[in-house]
Design brief:
heterodimer, A: 379 residues, alpha+beta, 4-stranded antiparallel beta sheet, 16% strand, B: 394 residues, Butyryl-CoA Dehydrogenase, subunit A, domain 2, Butyryl-CoA Dehydrogenase, subunit A, domain 3, 8 strands, binds flavin-adenine dinucleotide, Acyl-CoA dehydrogenase (chain A), AcylCo_DH-like_C (chain A), flavoprotein (chain A)
Chain lengths: 379, 394
């Protein structure tokens, strides 16, 4: 497959780009909800529009009522989300949870997918159990109890957790914390007794929860996939999420870069536009090169994932690591080249910096993923 | 071409490579001698090198994408990609390397007359004539259009006087493609792109020793060199039009940059695993740097693939080769820095059997030219700023 978009994908990029720039713009969404201290951190009306555009269920198989599209398509939407800093549960609900649910029984799918597709409900995922992303270790426990399970433990960084009507939880059903096997995924409904949320606003104004499970009773049909065999589903979900997060990061980088290059063409100092200064030109050109490379490897990773390639896992980590590095560069250069006004809340460039910081942590930062690349390469 | 045709081509190609590419030619290129450059006085380093070159030449695989009538195999872009992939899969060396293939060839395909194509492209494809590039002058490097070498019009020929510098392999080359000023009034529209024999009277070369201890570069002097305007019917001695050589020069530079960038697979390899295997345990901080490098190398590999895919269908920005050149050469320099670091004192050996005469350190030093030759990194960044980002000129 060539590494550029085909006609349908180009059309999707145009549609999603226009939609995000108009309906999902920083002014209409991020600033709007932030300034109102919105408890959800995103707008439900916009989410309904996502559904009308066909985005919410794009990764769900056609047999299950979705559009049966691939990661490349989901990434196209995510890149536009990133460029416009559009707050939405797309990544957690439509990519991560949807990927997990793909592996569910027909009952599980029947119960959860229709509302995901219609945009009626949004879902979250609970993986991390600490400050850093370490999915190799799962300590949160689900013990057999009658026909079902009893879930105890704590999860952190559950994005939009308080707004999620269901959370996909990775828990340990056997073995010790760092075992590969013995993990099971559960669909835990919002109203489950014994589950509590400590929802906090993050630096980028999005919401995330610390979730505590205190003997939460779950039916056997809450299981997604196989009991004790959840690692495979978890990995599939993580790869999709990482490639998706990389694409959103590319969008953030591009958004910040475009804004900065525009500014360089307008701002005058010393009697000329600052874009004439070579010191700034070279840094902008370097940034451009890096963003292009980050974008290329993200598209590559998405294609490999869609093609079922065994290299997808490696490339997903390469993409996540590369994008984190590059988006970080883009936002730092962005703020610096805006000079003093880049430090003001009134200007959007700082919002990119904040979103980038949150996105870097989500599903593993550049150090974590570079480390994975080394391990997968055998050193 | 349908997918099944392409798969058939792949199977065919694989079988052909299996039968024709000797195992010795599937080893990584370690230095210049592992590369066959062709030319009048060329010698082969081994029987395997000769066999591989001849098989590839007969099949048109020295220049697979060129039309058959010019010595190529006439492969479609998709087929050429398959061939590249299959060669990469077995680690096959390029059968022939030459400035004719990378630089002059593309310019002739674009600007040449039919007569020039028939003659020169075939010679290049068959590795018969080795070319060198006469662009830079002592006073004209990054600011190439300021060049002074002058060709005085004498009716049916020019008399060329001047000096070039950094002419790679000028002492080994048979012919030169050379930028010569033919009109002193117009900076851009006064340059002619000439082709002539290095054996012509008045051409002399003097080697320049590089920091790597090697000397593939020359100062090249032209002292009343007589260059005919034509080598026969429809074979002018210049490419494009007289005084319009700058367009040809720029077009060629695009291809040169693409080549130096290593977009075509040269810069994509990871090094962490091989270096830790070869040198044993490395410091954790170095390991981290290696991992970061591998991330960048793999990402750049994807960029190279994307770039080549886009070039084929005309989707790439025309200034994109500058970006590839910049990123690829900076990456390659970093690669060799890390190789030196992992190699430790062993890599410092300048003359020893074990290092095949100091290969690691000499290669490391050689790569420093990557971000200079074919246009410096700073010049690449200038081009990106102005032509892609549309930032104003100073
Ligand atoms: C938190 C904060 C507190 C401050 N406190 C004070 C204060 O108490 N009193 C006060 O008077 N001021 C204060 N300032 C203002 C500060 O001094 C200016 O922001 C600073 O001098 C930069 O000017 P500028 O913001 O107009 O940026 P600009 O001059 O517009 O610069 C924009 C970008 O262009 C670059 N640039 C500009 N000219 C060139 C050039 N010739 N070559 C290369 N690059 C160039 C800059 O480095 C920058 O990256 C404060 C600023 C901040 C952010
Ligand atoms: C190994 C090697 C092989 C080569 N092979 C050939 C060959 O076969 N044929 C041939 O014709 N030439 C060849 N060259 C020459 C090469 O193209 C030039 O060296 C190159 O274009 C730079 O020119 P210069 O050396 O004169 O450096 P200069 O132009 O003098 O540059 C000096 C420094 O100033 C910087 N600089 C210059 N202008 C600007 C600007 N506008 N903005 C910012 N920075 C600037 C440069 O980036 C550089 O860092 C080769 C060079 C090397 C090193």
């Amino acid at each position: 497959m060539p590494l550029y978009y085909d006609d349908d994908q180009t059309m999707l990029a145009d549609t999603a780009g226009q939609f995000m720039a108009e309906e999902g713009s920083i002014k209409n969404q991020l600033r709007h909800w932030r300034d109102r201290q919105c408890k959800d951190g995103f707008g439900h009306a916009l989410w309904q529009q996502f559904a009308e555009m066909g985005f919410t269920g794009m990764l769900v198989d056609e047999d299950d009522g979705g559009l049966g599209m691939g990661q490349v398509e989901a990434n196209i939407v995510l890149e536009e989300i990133g460029r416009n800093l559009t707050p939405s549960p797309f990544l957690s609900s439509s990519v991560l949870a949807a990927t997990a649910l793909k592996h569910g029984s027909n009952d599980v799918k029947g119960r959860w997918l229709p509302d995901l597709i219609s945009g009626e409900k949004v879902y979250g995922v609970a993986i991390d159990e600490g400050r850093k992303h370490r999915p190799e270790t799962i300590a949160c426990k689900a013990q057999k109890s009658g026909n079902g399970f009893k879930l105890s433990g704590k999860k952190d960084f559950v994005v939009y957790g308080a707004s999620a009507e269901m959370i996909v939880v990775a828990a340990r059903t056997s073995g010790s914390d760092s075992d590969v096997d013995g993990v099971t995924l559960f669909a835990v409904p919002q109203d489950a007794a014994g589950m509590s949320h400590d929802s906090v606003r993050l630096v980028d104004s999005s919401m995330a929860s610390h979730v505590t499970f205190d003997g939460v009773e779950l039916d056997g049909d809450a299981v997604i996939g196989e009991v004790d065999g959840g690692r495979e589903v978890l990995d599939a979900m993580l790869v999709a999420g990482r490639v998706g997060a990389a694409s959103e990061g590319v969008g953030v980088a591009r958004g910040a870069m475009d804004m900065t290059v525009d500014y360089l063409k307008q701002r005058k100092q010393f009697g000329r536009v600052i874009g004439e200064f070579q010191a700034l030109q070279h840094r902008a050109a370097h940034l451009y090169s890096e963003v292009e490379i980050a974008r290329a490897v993200t598209i590559k990773a998405a294609q490999l994932l869609d093609g079922g390639s065994e290299k997808a896992d490696l490339m997903a980590s390469v993409a996540k690591a590369k994008v984190a590095k590059v988006a970080g560069l883009a936002v730092r250069e962005g703020v610096q080249m805006h000079g003093g006004i880049g430090m003001t809340d009134e200007y959007d460039i700082g919002l990119y910096m904040k979103r980038d910081r949150a996105l870097q942590e989500f599903l593993g930062d550049q150090y974590y993923h570079a480390g994975r690349v080394a391990e997968m390469s055998g050193y | 071409m349908s997918n099944s045709d392409l798969e058939a081509f792949r199977a065919e190609t694989r079988a052909w490579l299996e039968a024709n590419c000797p195992p010795e030619m599937r080893q990584p290129v370690r230095d210049e001698e592992d590369v066959y450059w062709g030319g009048r006085n060329a010698t082969f380093k081994s029987e395997a090198q000769k066999a591989w070159f001849e098989a590839a030449r007969d099949k048109g695989y020295t220049v697979p994408a060129w039309p058959k009538e010019y010595g190529g195999a006439g492969l479609s872009p998709a087929q050429a990609k398959v061939l590249r992939e299959e060669m990469a899969a077995i680690g096959a060396r390029p059968p022939l390397s030459s400035f004719g293939i990378w630089m002059l060839g593309p310019a002739l395909l674009h600007f040449g007359t039919e007569g020039q194509k028939q003659r020169f492209l075939n010679e290049i494809a068959r590795g018969e004539i080795r070319w060198c590039q006469g662009y830079s002058e002592p006073g004209s490097g990054s600011d190439l259009v300021s060049l002074q070498t002058f060709g005085e019009d004498k009716g049916d020929h020019w008399v060329v006087n001047g000096q070039k510098i950094w002419t790679s392999y000028a002492d080994k080359a048979d012919w030169i493609f050379c930028l010569v000023r033919t009109d002193k009034e117009d900076k851009y529209r006064g340059i002619t792109f000439m082709l002539y024999d290095m054996a012509s009277e008045g051409v002399s070369t003097k080697p320049i020793l590089l920091i790597s201890g090697n000397s593939p570069f020359c100062e090249t002097f032209f002292d009343d060199v007589s260059v005919p305007k034509s080598y026969g019917e429809d074979v002018p001695a210049y490419v494009g039009e007289i005084n319009r050589g700058w367009d040809v020069a720029k077009y060629l530079l695009g291809h040169e940059r693409e080549m130096i960038s290593g977009a075509d697979g040269g810069n994509t390899g990871t090094i962490g695993a091989a270096l830790t295997r070869a040198n044993g345990e490395v410091d954790p901080v170095l390991r981290a740097e290696l991992a970061q490098f591998d991330v960048d190398a793999l990402a750049y590999g994807a960029m190279g693939e994307k770039f080549l895919d886009e070039i084929k269908v005309g989707k790439a920005h025309p200034a994109q080769p500058n970006m590839m050149k910049y990123a690829g050469t900076e990456l390659n320099k970093r690669r060799h820095e890390l190789m030196m670091a992992a190699g430790g004192s062993h890599a410092l050996e300048w003359e020893s059997e074990e290092t095949s005469g100091g290969k690691p350190s000499r290669n490391w030093l050689r790569t420093k030219a990557n971000s200079i030759e074919g246009g410096t990194s700073e010049v690449m960044l200038n081009v990106i700023s102005k032509r892609i980002l549309d930032l104003p000129g100073a």
